[in-house]
Predict the structure.
Amino acid sequence: MAQDKTPRKIIAQNREARHEYFVIEALETGIELVGTEVKSLRAGGVNLKDAWADIDDGEIILKGMHISPYEQGSIFNRDPVRPRRLLAHKTEIRRLAQQIKLQGYTLVPLSLYFKHGRVKVELGLCKGKKLYDKRASAAARDAKRDIDRALKQH
């Protein structure tokens, strides 16, 4: 399959997710939003840090994502941490639900971005890291940084 080279405007990234979890697979989904939420996203008022996704009745629901209320929104503003529905194909949702149930994986949003004017969520199928895994990945990152520094100096 050819690589998708469409322009992306990244709104927010969940950097902590890659530290806390092994990302097994990444999936691009749409998200159901209202107009004032999209305007707030364009202003950068979003936090993915404590967000996760769950599958309820054949739908992927994103919970814990905070979108700041739009300042000029008045009565049209919604609850900042309300559950939001993610849009994916039914077969993908079934496959993810099966892996969550059988393998003990979890769904974590990795990033939020605009693609062709629409808001997309990169959802990761993740497995939690143990403390020793986090130490090993930090040691590998530090070693790579030292090697890059040594090569840059010579």
Observations:
- Residues 131-153 form the longest helix (23 residues).
- The beta strands are 8-13, 21-31, 46-47, 52-56, 59-63, 66-67, 84-87, 106-115, 118-128.
- The helical segments are 15-20, 35-42, 90-103, 131-153.
- The chain has four helices and nine strands.
